[in-house]
Amino acid sequence: MANPVQRSVGKPRKWQSPDDLRLLIDNYLQNTPVEDWSVTGLALTCGASRQLLIDYEKLPEFKDLLSEAKLMIEHAYELSLRKNGRVGDIFALKNLGWRDKTETETNINVKFSLADLHGQIETAKSTVELIDQ
């Protein structure tokens, strides 16, 4: 049976296994001060772009590894925000999916009869006639 990480067509993968990428991620997290962690910094350390990390996160064998790394970076931003309240941390958290607004969905059901609608139209017509006079 073929290795699911290997592909027979297209550009070769940057990392052949999650273990290859894990070494780079661990190196970044261990050697970079927590307050300097960022997704872009992680991408640079791994020799990749942010988009490449996003693309690899869609691959089942890399999903957990990259999701955990991004969660650790998100946690660092959250702690920094709590401690320092910096706008940059808010911006970074929004880029990681956080929102600062609440959206509420409201459904309103209105029932009316054609007779009621006809009566309202006639009333409106009468009002317009009075105004025109």
Instruction: Label the overall shape.
Output: elongated
Total beta strands? 0
Structural class: mainly alpha
Largest sheet: none
Tell me, rounded to a whole number, the average pLDDT. 83
What is the beta-strand fraction? Answer: under 5%
Q: Given the structure, what is the number of helices? A: 6
Q: C-alpha Rg, in Å?
A: 28 Å
Spell the H/E element sequence. Answer: HHHHHH
Distance between the termini: 89 Å
Low-confidence stretches: none
Name the helicity range: 55-70%
Explain how this protein is built.
This protein has 133 residues and is mainly α. The chain has a domain at 18-100. Helices cover 62% and strands 0% of the residues. The protein contains six helices and no strands. It has helices at residues 18-31, 39-45, 50-57, 60-84, 87-95, 114-132. α1 packs parallel to α4 and α3 (50-57) crosses α4 (60-84). The radius of gyration is 28 Å and the shape is elongated. The termini are far apart. 11% of the residues are buried. The model has no long low-confidence stretch (mean pLDDT 83).
